[in-house]
Every structure is written in C-alpha cells, then in structure tokens.
C-alpha cells in the first residue's frame, strides 16, 4: 500500500514538473514577444536581466542544497560563457524580428547543424536513417521561410546566427560537462555570472543605458514587472528542464518537446494574429515529421546500444 502511495506521489511530482516546464517554456516565448512588440525593451538588456536572475536563482538553489557547486577554472569556461551570450541574444533577436512560427521553425535547424559540426569537427558518425531525417526538417524550414508573408531578411540573418551559435554552445556544453565532470546546473552556476559580466560590458556599445529606450530608462511599472517576470520564467525553464531529465527519461523529455513545439506554433498565430499560408502549414508539418523521425531513430539506436551492453558477458 505504501509503495503504491509513493508511486502515485512520484507520478504526481513528475506530472507537476512537466506541467511547470510546459507553461514556463511557452510563456517565455510569448512574454518576450509581448515585451518586444508592446514595450520595445532592448534585447541585450533583457538577456542581461535573464542571466542575472538565473544566477541569483541558482545561488538560492545551492544554498537550499538542491545541487552542490563545484570549483571550476574560469579560463575553461570563457568560450562557453561567450557562446551562451551569443545564442541567447541572437535567439531573442530572431524572436523580435520574425513571426513566432518562423522563429520556432528556425530553431529546429539546430539538430542538422549540430550533426554537421560533430561530423566535421569531432569525426562523429551518424546512421543513414538519422541523416535522411535532416531532409524534411530543412525542407520544411525553407518552405515556411519562402512563403512567410512577414518575411524579414534581417530576422533570418539573426535566426541563422542564433542556430549556428546555439549549435556550437550545445556541442561545447556536452564536451565541457564530460571534461570537467559536472552536471548542467553546476556548469550554469559558474557560466551565468561570467555571461552577465560580458553583457554588462557589451550593452553600452549596442544599446542605450539611461534615458529613453535604455535599461535604466523611464519604463512603466507594468513594463518592469513584465521584464522581471520574464527573467523568473527563464530561470524556471532552465530549472525544470534539469529536473525533468533527472527524474524521467530522454524519451519523455523529447516527446514533451514536440508537444511544446506544436502549442507554441499554434499560440503564435492565435495571440499575435500572424498570417499562415497553406504552404507554410505544409512546411511546419514537414519539419515536425522530420523531428519526430529523428527522435524515433535516435532513441531506438540508444536503446539498441544499451541492450548490447547489458547482453555483453
């Protein structure tokens, strides 16, 4: 009876964690878009707020013994912290300058780019099935971009830069976690303040600091509350991702990711009245099919590798 109760509680906690991640992941996209459209808050300054709130949140977490910090040499994290700045800034600039559909689909190109980087730079090999899934993903993104009524060349440049830097960041994070023997929260705990310091130096060169449109400008109370809320939600996204992966499985996280992908696309057209043509819809379905196929083949290969290890005497 006790074990059944524990299982129900455990499932309840997992369901609550998944729900928190779902709400936070969708909210952060829509809230950031709302801040850009209705308040015009500067992009890099918003990213700086996110980094500072994430760092403070992680500081509270380690004080509550949610994770144990590990001493790391700053020189080993400089490139990682710089790429962290780049990927968040460019991704937010993509969101600011594109429709939510185009922004969301462009992010799907991260998987093909990571595969190219790992193949060329790390000599990693991928099966033919995995390579073939990149065709519908890429084709869908091209279809959507070509038929996007609100096509923005600058937005596509930011989206492309965002995908490239995000891909590099994800590859380097995996390499650094293995090299330094740390988990994602331990890495982010040292990385977030370094990235904050870098942006603090960079912001005055690209955006006003004081006066109209500056981070310390005459913003309304509602604008400041929205920005602060955006920072808190960004931290919740990071924290809930870590918790979900630690308490469920990659299958759960990936499948849940596809669900969020669909809801975010749908929400963008409902909330921001973004136009959607039939060809764009086909492009989205094409990309979604490619992502699902990639996930299926990747997880099948991982399960096959695990079963071979178990069977080995």
From TrEMBL:
Q: Which domain of life is it from?
A: Eukaryota
Which Pfam families does the entry link to?
A: TPT
Q: Does the keyword Transmembrane apply?
A: yes
Q: How does it sit in the membrane?
A: Multi-pass membrane protein
Instruction: Give the residues annotated as coiled coil.
Output: none
Keywords from UniProt, A to Z, are: Membrane, Transmembrane, Transmembrane helix
| Ranges that cross the membrane | 12-35, 41-61, 77-95, 128-147, 153-175, 187-206, 218-244, 251-272, 278-297
Gene Ontology CC annotations of this record = membrane
In the UniProt record, does the keyword DNA-binding occur?
Answer: no
Question: Family, per the entry?
Answer: Belongs to the TPT transporter family. SLC35E subfamily.
The protein in question is named: Solute carrier family 35 member E3 isoform X2
Q: What species does this protein belong to? A: Vicugna pacos (Alpaca)
């Amino acid at each position: 009876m006790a074990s059944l109760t524990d299982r129900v509680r455990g499932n309840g906690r997992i369901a609550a964690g998944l729900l928190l991640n779902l709400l936070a992941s969708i909210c952060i996209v829509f809230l950031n878009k709302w801040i850009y459209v209705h308040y015009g808050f500067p992009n890099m300054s918003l990213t700086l707020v996110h980094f500072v709130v994430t760092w403070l949140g992680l500081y509270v977490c380690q004080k509550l013994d949610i994770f144990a910090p590990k001493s790391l040499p700053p020189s080993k994290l400089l490139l990682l912290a710089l790429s962290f700045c780049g990927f968040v800034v460019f991704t937010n600039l993509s969101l600011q300058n594109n429709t939510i559909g185009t922004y969301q689909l462009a992010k799907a190109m991260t998987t093909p780019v990571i595969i190219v980087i790992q193949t060329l730079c790390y000599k990693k090999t991928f099966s033919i099935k995995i390579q073939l899934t990149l065709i519908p993903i890429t084709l869908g993104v091209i279809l959507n971009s070509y038929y996007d009524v609100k096509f923005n060349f600058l937005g596509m440049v930011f989206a492309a830069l965002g995908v490239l830097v995000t891909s590099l960041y994800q590859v380097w994070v995996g390499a650094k976690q293995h090299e330094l023997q740390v988990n994602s929260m331990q890495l982010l705990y040292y990385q977030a303040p370094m990235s904050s310091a870098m942006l603090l130096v960079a912001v005055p060169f690209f955006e006003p600091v004081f006066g109209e449109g500056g981070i310390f400008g005459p913003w309304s109370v509602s604008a400041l509350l929205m920005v602060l809320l955006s920072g808190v939600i960004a931290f919740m996204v990071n924290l809930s991702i870590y918790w979900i992966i630690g308490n469920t499985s990659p299958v759960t996280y990936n499948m849940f990711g596809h669900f969020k992908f669909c809801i975010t696309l749908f929400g963008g057209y409902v909330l921001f009245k973004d136009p959607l043509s039939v060809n764009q819809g086909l492009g989205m379905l094409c990309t979604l099919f490619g992502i699902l196929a990639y996930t299926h083949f990747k997880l099948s290969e991982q399960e096959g590798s695990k079963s071979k290890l178990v069977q080995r005497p």
